[in-house]
Amino acid sequence: MKVHQFDSQMRPDSEFQSGHLKFLCVGNQCRLMDARRTPGVIESVSPEGFFRWRISAFEDKGEYWDVPLENASRYQFALDCSELPPDRIKILEAQIEAFNQPLSIPIQPQRRSETESQISQVEKLVLDWCSKNSQAMPSRISVDALVSGQTQAIANCLTGYMEVSGLSKQEKLTSKLHVLNPFSGEWIKGLQITCAELGLKEFESTTPRTADIFSGPGDKQLRQKYIIHRLAFVRAVFKSFGYREVVLFRGMAFDGNWQVNSHRFFSSWTFSKEVAEAFVSSSDHAKHSYLLKRTFPIEKLFLTCVETAAMNRQYREHEAVVIHDPEDEMLW
Predict the structure, then answer these.
(1) What is the pTM of this model?
(2) Confidence of residue 283 (pLDDT cuts 50, 70, 90)
(3) Res. 282: pLDDT tops 70
(4) 191 and 169, same structural domain?
(5) What are the pLDDT digits (tens) for 139-161?
(6) How far is CA 246 from CA 20, 94, 260, in A?
(7) What whole-number distance in Å separates Cα of residue 19 and Cα of residue 283?
(8) Which CATH number fits the domain that encloses residue 34?
(9) Tens digit of each residue's pLDDT (9 = 90 or more) over 167-186
(10) What angle, 0 to 180 degrees and rounded to 10, lies between the N-to-C axes of helices 148-164 and 109-133?
């Protein structure tokens, strides 16, 4: 099964060199070390510890990622690319050290109980709103045989609900970034921190680098409201279709080191076994690969292709984003 666009004539790795801070010069061409070697260009380097990488091929052509400086090693650069002077490299190294300060937010059981109570209350509001404002909503769906017309109707309902709730900006930013790259910039990190403060999951990572992460659309009260209403919408919709749990698959192939206890906050899965198998077979020469099947309660779902329009545009991964639990850390 073909999930993504692919260049069968891509140049071999021997024509490139491993990524390093010294190659973060504006204008340098480089490739992501994924299975299809997605190409792009270094567009800028920010004082907040990111470099902007503009994608130049495949489904996301023209879009950009804001990548932490230390992740330059995940790219490969042309052999004749420009290099930064030693003093500039030292500045970037100092930025990385300054920004990588640990941040730990443990779960507060009482806060979690309060948040779950709020989500339950909002679920009722969601069902009432959908029944009154969305005549096109299907009466039932099959998550392992999704129909585009059904998902579009549900996505339209979510869009309308978020608009009347004053949360449309938060929904657009979250869904776009999760599809494009949840590790681009720090919008998703801000959501993770807020989820932790709501008691939904512990946070184990680093402090934010972005000065305005909790201002404007990212204001903490708005983020809290968004998380509660989004979780409530997903739970209400899945329950209305008769689901209390869902079967999901995850397939992955990669060349890096196998890591456990990675403290992931969210993990991406798919409703389709075929899609998961395609991820495994996308790189036959990978050092590691795995194919998993798990059953999750719907309370662990954060975003899914059932209600998220952005997941059904350039990609057809039948994706579901799950809130990662400690017992999942044994998997990678």
Answers:
(1) 0.92
(2) low
(3) no
(4) yes
(5) 788 887 777 788 999 999 999 99
(6) 42, 45, 25
(7) 20
(8) 2.30.30.30
(9) 999 999 999 999 999 999 99
(10) 110
The answer to whether residue 261 scores a pLDDT higher than 60 is no
Question: CB under 8 Å to 284, separation ≥6 — which residues?
Answer: none
Does 247 share its domain with 190?
Answer: yes
User: How does 90-126 read in b/e, with b if 16+ C-beta sit within 10 Å?
Assistant: eebeebeeebeeeeebeebeeeeeebbebbeebbeeb
Q: What range defines the domain where residue 70 resides?
A: 13-100
Rounded Cα–Cα distance for residues 97 and 94 (Å):
5
Closest CA to 19 of 68, 87, 63, 55: 68
User: Among the three residues 37, 69, 100, which one is the final residue of a domain in this structure?
Assistant: 100
Kindly state whether residues 77 and 118 are assigned to the same domain.
Answer: no
Task: Please state, in angstroms and rounded to a whole number, the distance separating the CA atoms of residues 103 and 5.
Answer: 37
3-state secondary structure 148-163: HHHHHHHHHHHHHHHH
Is the residue at 5 inside a domain?
no
> Do 41 and 147 share a domain, yes or no?
no
Q: Indicate whether 43 and 75 sit together in one domain.
A: yes
